[in-house]
Amino acid sequence: MRHPNYFVVMLELIIIPLMFQAYWTAAIFTICNAYLLSVRIRAEERALCLLKSPSQQGIFYVFFL
Description:
mainly alpha, 80% helix, Methyltransferase, methyltransferase, transferase, ICMT_MeTrfase
């Protein structure tokens, strides 16, 4: 697993609201967090790719696409 901390955060956002029977909160925040993490992980992967091979990609591509 490449991003284990994000997996733990997802579990927290599901489990903690369910402990207090906040079903809508669990559903809504889990969906929102999943979307945000998908955007963030893609950006992190692009940035890591740039660090590995800076001659193949430009900085504009990494931060704005």
